[in-house]
Structure formats: structure tokens, C-alpha cells
Amino acid sequence: MQPNPGDTTNVLLLYLIQTTVNGPNSVPDINTLSSSTGYSSSTVWVQTLAYASLAFSVLAAFGAVLGKQWLNSYKSVRGRGSLEERGIERQMKLDGVEYFRLQTVLRAFLVLLQISLLLFGLSLSARMWTQETTISSVIICTTAFGILFYAGTILVSVLRPDSPFQTPASELFVAIRQKFLSDKFTFTPSIFAKSSAIRWILETSTNPEIVKAAAAIVPCVQWPPNLDASAAFSRLQDNFKACQDREELYVKYGQAIAYLCIQSVKINLEPLESCWIASIPKIQSRFIRDAFMAGRAAYDQLKNTQETDTQLKHRASVRTALRTMLVHGCTRRRFSRPDDECLIWDSELCWCHSDEREPSCEEFDWLVDYLAYNAEHSTDDETQGDALLALSAMHGLGSSSKQQSYINSLIHCMQSTRPPRVRHAALRATCEAREELASISSALMPQGVDAQLLDELSRALLTAVRPYNDRTIRTGPDASLHLDRDSCYLRLIYTLTKNDEWCQRLTRDGHPDRCIFIADVVNCSSEFNLHLSVIFGRIKSSGVDLRLSVAEWRWRLLIAFTWSTWRISDAVDEIPAIVTATRLNLTALDDGPEGEWFVNIVTDVHKTLVELQQKQAHHVDRGIAQATIDAALSSLQGLHAELSLMVEQWNSSQRNDGASRS
């Protein structure tokens, strides 16, 4: 608060200069230069804030020292006497701490320090503002940021009681809010609090019993999307692999892993490849069976309740059960994400009861009903795809009372407007029921099934693999050529063409054109060749006028690979169809590549004929009817004779041409 002596010095220097220039009479009386005792109001306020800041700082420091002494006294003086007496004395001290509100007093010292910091920032900002605005702007901005940050933490603490930014000021505002606005502000604990606790236990606990208990709780809590559960998942995997000799514990960890796989949490997918233990073959069936039974129980409860909230709960349980089945369904004995595309084509969801009995088709009735309802009334495409893949384990059309409903659901799910996963899952389910479908004829129609329904199914099958007939798509699940999808499709058509009525139906709906397209673009060494040749041969044998537009060189290679592949498949009933397909495009021999191809075909046909004659008894022992073997031999002998005659005629013409030239 002292006057600035530099001001007086500057005035005296000015007077000396004036005296030198203008003479001694030009200088006013210097007695008036005595220091003034008056101060500007701004200076007073700045100094007041500064000294107040200093006072609060000293008080806060003094309080901190006192608090340290109080706490040391509480900890150090333990008293003497028996254990009970010392315990009573310690409890009395604790009661004194609460009675005299020691915690509140210590927090008051922190408030003093915060007030001191605020006053210091204000005084420094005001002081620099009167001298240099550029420098003061930096100080003011820093002070304002600190104030806003502190106010923000208070606001967050008031709105969210679980906030970690609690301060005495925030507690004051919380008390005010609870007193005057308690009805408008209600705090609901997070539904993910339990999952966070479980994750923390799995990541940090070293107690095996606690980890086991946490693993059992994993499927019972909700997990937030995009939560990084990699460490917890890795811990579950390690325990899963380590307890393969204890089945119940093994199953418990497996269920926890599967539940995390169906959630949207972040997990490390790489170790999934080695999770399955091949030495326990029944475990996979048990996992799938348990999930199936859980889904059925939830569906039974769903049917018996009318409350909307309860219905939603049971629907979620059914959905979780279906997702869990898919996690365990990979044929490579590993866990996988339920949306993995490979599960559509490679999953194996078959299961058996604990006594190794296979489930009856009636046990799948609930799932057929659930699929039928979802196909008509729900937009949950994910669940529909899961249900279709689970139903593929029936390897049929289900019980007689549900076949019509099941076929209708398959048709609905294969419409072009459905997502690729749903269409392809329906195609897979239909493929698994191909043997039963092929056995249906006009004379043996199941209950509720008629020719019109099968016609719709035939058209839907083509839509499933070719939803956009007028467009060529090169990549993605709806690509014009998709190996997994088209392999499933060809297996289905291959089986259906065993039935002449299906041959007529498939031809009318354009399936031969699709097969011709595949034959024209597929790799010549593909396993598709055998199926394609048999399909073409059966359709031709059924009396259909089949017009092939496949490039001639591709057709020759297709037939050649078919004959070489058949000896591996060893399916006797295919031979008549392959013979018919071979005759579809026989041309006259010449000296070019066609002649070499023809000679190879003759050789393969002869080998097949000899091999079939030698293995007749073996095929009969396998249950193949003698009539089927005789039909195959007859067709082979006829083709061999025809080809041999063509070769003989070609050799004769070659000799005649040589003689005429000589």
C-alpha cells in the first residue's frame, strides 16, 4: 500500500529540466511533492483480494498441519489393557470423530485453499489489467478456465451421484437438490454395474473359487456394447482349457465364454481357434442341447403370459438361447461369433440327449411355431436366421402337423426382400431336409402339403440364390457365383432330381438355367462337376427337353472330371444319370483335342464298368439293391458299346484316309 517513490523522482527530474530551460521562476513550489496518502479504489480492491488470498492460504496450511496432528494422535495413542478394553477405547475415538464431525472440519480447510486460489487469481488478473492488457488476458483466461472446470465438476456431481468428482461444494448443492428438487432428480443405478464388477473380478482375482463364481454369473448379467472384455475373456479361456478333466466346471466356463461371444463386447477372436478340446466329444452336444432346452423353456413361458414386459423378457431369453447354440455349432470344434457367415454353411447343430438318444422331430415343434410367428410378425431378421440354422439339425421337415407351417416359413424367408443371411439360412435348412422333400410325390403328400406349396418352394429356392436376376454381382453374399451357397444349392437340386415330379417342377421354374450358368463359370476341377452332370442327366432322363448352352470345351472337361470323380464317390445310383449326361453332347471324332478327350472318356467308362462288375457283392452288402446295380451295369455297357463303336469307326476312317493318300 506504500506510494510509488518513482513517481516523485520523475516529477523532480521534470522540474530540473524546466528550471534549466526557462529559469528558476518557472518551477512551482516543490513542497507540494510530498507523498500522497490517498489511493485509488481499484488499488484498494486488488490489495484486499491479494491479502485475503494470503490469509486463507495461511489458514488452510495451518488447518492441514492441525489435521495431520489430530490424525496422528488418533492412530498413535492405542491405550493399554485387555483386547476388549482397547477395542472399546478405539470405538470411543471413532464415535468422537463422527460426533465432532472431524471429516467436515478437514474438508473446510480444503475449501479455504480453494477460496484462496480463487481470490489470488482474481487479484492477479485485476492488477495486470491496469498495467498490461495482453498479459492480463492470459491470466484471466487461465483463471476463467479453472473456475469453469470446477463448476463443471460440481454440476456433474449434482446430476450423477456416481461421479468421482465429489467436493464439499458439490455435496452442498446435492443437499439443496435433494431438499427442493427430490422429485425431479432420481438416480437409477446402471444396469451394467454388475457386469463391470464381474469383469474386474475376472481380470484381477487370483482366488480360483471367486473366479469360478464370477464365471457362473457371467450369463446372468447384461454387458454394455463395445466394452473391452478381452482380458476377462482370456482368463475364462485359460480356465476353460485347464479344467477339461472336470466336466461340470468345464461346462460352466464354456457357457460363460459362449455368452460373451454373443454379446457386442470386444474380445480377442484369435484364441477361439484352439478353445475346443477334442478329447471330450460329447461336450459340444451338451452345450447345444442345454441351449436348445433353455430356449424351449423360455418359449413355453412366453406362450403362457399376456404381460408385454414379461413377453419381451422371454423373447430375449429365446433369442439368447438360439445365439448360444450357434456359438457352439462350428464344425471345426471352436467357439465362434453367431453372425459368422461360415456358420450358415459349415455349422453342425445336431445334438442328443444325455442317454445318447437322438431328438424326435416333435421336439422341434416349438421352434417351428416360433419361426412361423417371427416370419409373419417380427422384423428380427437375426433371430429368424438363428432359428432356421437351429432347425437344420432336424434333417427333415419336422412332425407331420408342422410340415406345412415349416415349408411356408421357408418360402417366406427366401423372398428377395429378406436379408442374405435369412435367405441363405433358409436355403441351408431346406438342403438339410432334401431327402424328405425328394420323397414327396403326388401319391404320397404329407398332411397339409400340396403341389401348389411345393411349386412355391421351388420358385423360392431360385430366389434364394438369385435374388437379382437382372444384375451381375461379383462380390458379397449375393454374388452371382458364391461357392458355399451354390454348393449347398447343387446338393439340394441333386437330391430333388431323384424324383421325376421334382424334375418337372424344377425345369418349369428355371433351375436348369441356373445349373448351366454355374457349369459355364465354375472351375473345371471343382467338386460341382459330379452334381451338375447327375442333375443334367436326371432331368434329361425325366423326359425334359434339356438344351445346354455350356461352352463345348467346358462341357468336355465337366464330363471328364465327373467320370474320374465318381470312382471316389462310389454312388451306384448316379451312373445312369452320368451316362445320360455323357450322351448329351457326343460329337464325331477328329484329330484335335476332342479325339484325345474321347479316348480318355472311353478309358474311364471301361474302368468304371470293370470296377462295378468286380464290386457287386460289396455294394449289395452296403444295402444297395441288386436292381440298382443291374441298371447301372446296363447303362455302362450300353455307353461303352456305343463309344467303342465310335472309336472303331474313327479308326477305320483313319485307315481308309491313309490308304487313299498312299
TrEMBL record:
Transmembrane residue ranges: 44-66, 108-129, 135-159
- What are the entry keywords? Membrane, Transmembrane, Transmembrane helix
Q: Is-annotated flag, keyword Transmembrane?
A: yes
- The answer on whether this UniProt entry bears the keyword Membrane reads yes
Query: Which residues are in the DUF6535 domain?
Result: 1-130
Q: What is this protein called?
A: DUF6535 domain-containing protein
